[in-house]
Structure formats: structure tokens, C-alpha cells
Amino acid sequence: MAQIRALIYHKKAPLPLTLQTIKEIEASDKTLVDLHFHDLRHEATSRLADKLQLHELMKVTGHKSSAMLARYYHPKATDLALKLG
């Protein structure tokens, strides 16, 4: 876990074994190659928006303004159409 944390915060270069493991994963499984933490944040924010009001969603996600929250909230067009009737 410490090695992963160091990679995320660019505190030190990855170990050769870590680089080899990453290459093996990328070669065998293309599912999670381009997945990042912020991708998960976008998805979670959009799903929580169906259940929470704006001010509640801001508290849960930690956004200080509605403008920042809007960068992560991506509603489905079908859900918006259903709300409009």
C-alpha cells in the first residue's frame, strides 16, 4: 500500500517489480487500464444525485460550491426526461 501511495503522490519512482506487474496487468486485462480515482468520483456523484438534494450532495462529496459539483455531476438524459414528465 505504501508503494501505491508513493506512486500516486509522485514521491518516489516505482520499484522495478511494480512496473513489471503493471505491464502484465495491462497486457492481460484491458478493463481497468484507463480507470482513475476521479472516474469513480464522477460516477458516485452522479448516482448520489438521484438520492440527495444539492446541498446534501455538496456535503457528502466535499465540494465547496455548486459550480465545482457541476463538474462531477452528469445526469442521464433519460432520467431528466422522466423528471420533466
Please provide a written account of the structure.
The structure is a single chain. The protein starts with a helix and ends with a helix. With 85 residues, it is mostly helical. It is elongated and about 55 Å long. It contains 6 helices and no strands. It has helices at 2-8, 16-28, 37-48, 54-61, 66-72, 77-84. The protein has 2 domains: 1-32, no CATH class; 37-84.
Produce the secondary structure layout:
Blueprint: H1 2-8, H2 16-28, H3 37-48, H4 54-61, H5 66-72, H6 77-84
Which descriptors apply to this entry?
85 residues, mainly alpha, 2 domains
Number of distinct beta strands: 0
- What's the order of the H and E elements? HHHHHH
Low-confidence segments, given as residue ranges, are none
Average pLDDT for all residues: 80
Distance between the termini: 48 Å
Number of domains: 2
Regarding quaternary structure, what we see is single chain
Shape: elongated
Number of helices: 6
Summarize the structure.
The protein is built from 6 helices and no strands.
